[in-house]
Structure formats: structure tokens, C-alpha cells
Amino acid sequence: MAEVFRLRVSLRGAEPEIWRQIEVVSTITLFQLHGVLQRAMGWTDSHLHQFWQADRCFGLPDPEFDTPREDERRVRLNTVLSKPTDELMYEYDFGDGWEHDIVLEAVGPVTGDEPRVSDGRGACPPEDVGGIPGFELFLEALSDPRHPQHGEILEWHGPFDPDAFDIAATNRALRVRRRRRTGA
Looking at the structure, do residues 172 and 153 belong to the same domain, yes or no? Predict the structure, then answer.
């Protein structure tokens, strides 16, 4: 039976913390959760990803990887998370190494509004910025007009507000994905 899982998703190493509180149906696959995470965090789905739980790795099968991976398209979320405090790690962009801690906070009834973001903080770092260390340099350069890379980074990315998070726009992006998936 499907339930709603309220998940807290935090980007490891980000200071101040960048996080989202997401509500999803417990029976979605990890592949579907990947799509929700991409939109909820603000990523562009331009890189590889995988999930980890202890020594289990979940992702799309690929003979190029040394680590055996369980096919995320066949693994339902409620088979890896079942009770509050259960955890999963989501890694996006193996070059930049964006790691997200996913914690099951609560279980409740399905409302039909899922997936949705109910809370969050902080702007998603730009793609290809170089992980947390690159993001810190990016923010430092943008905030200091005298920084030697200020002009170059401003030209590459444009203005950036690290505190910006638009929950309404994020939920609109999730609704668009839901309509495409259901054909509604």
C-alpha cells in the first residue's frame, strides 16, 4: 500500500546548508526519485547519478562501472526506506561529486499532491562549478568585485543569490513532470 514519505534532502558540505523537504509516494522507484530530486534541488540532469545505502549501490546498469549496481528502475523507495530516520545517499555528477543525504522524516497518507516540496533553503549550486570547493570559490569571487575571477565568473554565470529558493517555482516544475508522466 502506498504512503507518503516526507524526506529531508541535504547537500553535503554546503555552508550554509542547502536542503529540501520533499513529499513523495513511497512506491516510486529510485529512478523516479532521481527525477524528483533533480527538479527539487534545481539540477539540470546533465550528469550521471547513483544512490548508496551502506554497501548497496543503485543506478542505471552500466558495464563501465566496477561497482555492481542494482537497477534503480526496479527498486521501490519503500524497499530501502521504511521508518523515520532511515537514510539513503544520492550522488549526482561524479566529477563534481554532489552528495545528498536523504533522511525519511515521516510517513503519512497519500494526498494526490505528490511529489511536492514543502520546505527548503538555499539556491542549488551551478552545474560544473567544481563541487563544494568550486562552489565556495564561485561565491567568493562573485561577492568580491576585486577578486581576480569576478568578471569571468559573472560573465559565465551571471548574478547568483545563494539564499534564493522559490518553493512555488519548484513545485510548478514538479507538477509539469507529473503531467508529462501521467498525460494529464
Answer: no
